Amino acid sequence: MECINCKSKNIGQISQNHYYCWNCFVEMHREQDVFHIHEVDLDGSLLPLNDLFSEDERRVQ
Ligand SMILES: [Zn+2]
């Protein structure tokens, strides 16, 4: 897979449905066939980025 945000393939898998982009520091959480995207802030809090992408863009290929 590639990062939905920056298209990098530098993706780490945190758990079964949970991915992390080492390039743009975005966390992707897969729920059924759609990814939910958060940016991880420096203090560890999650900022939702779902609004930046259409549901089609977030759909699992
Ligand atoms: Zn990325």
List keywords for this structure.
5 strands, binds zinc ion, 61 residues, globular, mainly beta
Task: Explain what this protein looks like in three dimensions.
7% of the residues lie in helices and 41% in strands. The model has no long low-confidence stretch (mean pLDDT 94). It contains one helix and five strands. The chain has one domain (11-58). It starts with 10 loop residues before the first strand and ends with a helix. A five-stranded antiparallel beta sheet has the order 1-2-3-4-5. It has one helix at 55-58, and strands spanning 11-15, 18-21, 26-31, 34-40, 46-48. By secondary structure, it is mostly beta strands. Bound molecules: zinc ion.
What is the end-to-end distance? 9 Å
Proportion of residues in β-strands:
35-45%
Helix content: under 10%
Name the average pLDDT: 94
Please write out the topology.
Elements: E1 11-15, E2 18-21, E3 26-31, E4 34-40, E5 46-48, H1 55-58
Antiparallel strand pairs: 1-2, 2-3, 3-4, 4-5
Task: Kindly summarize this structure in a few lines.
The chain has 61 residues and is mainly beta.
